[in-house]
Amino acid sequence: MTDIHTHILPQMDDGSQSVEESLAMLRASAAQGITCVAATPHFYPAQESPESFLARRASAAARLRAALGPGMPEVLLGAEVCCFEGMGRSRVLEKLRIEGTSLLLIEMPFTPWPDRLIRELRYLQEGDEITVVLAHVERYLSLQKSGVWDTLMADGVRFQCNASFLLRWQTRRQALQMLRSGRVHLLGSDCHSMERRPPRLGPALARLGARDRQKLEVETVRLMARGE
Known about the structure:
single chain, three-stranded parallel beta sheet, alpha/beta
């Protein structure tokens, strides 16, 4: 299984602060049966140019990959892109897709979305080069009009939820309903460190029945295969 949303690259954002911490997170993921992780550090276009971000990401990835030992999960490079005006027509975002895939992880505002942002997502999704994935979709559910989700799904936008959505007893039923109705397509731990939001994708997967887990694994493989 692939962890589609992590902050394991050292000193990139508010996630891992050292190679040693990154390795600890990867070991924990491996122990949970995770064989691949997408490293998706935050990218804030208002604060940093894409060129600067990509250079920093390459340096962090090189330091981490040099320290990887046998049995570690494969690390794919990506980004968690903060939504911004004009992103629907930005070609630079193709460079921020999860490595070897068409998947682009987008973090949306934690406020009701105006129609112009919905249009940005739809513009971005129009071509074959990018498959938009909304990060930790459970955090937006209570803030948006219900019709938003059907509109975006009809356009091919896909939804990722965090492991915590399945692990918290308050939200587990809703998480399962969304997974079974095709409204959750990908899972991620959104791990930041071993202390604050550690990798817990394995325990979340263990909460699923065999049929639900198989459905999720098939959908993950299908979506990640696009763009290879």
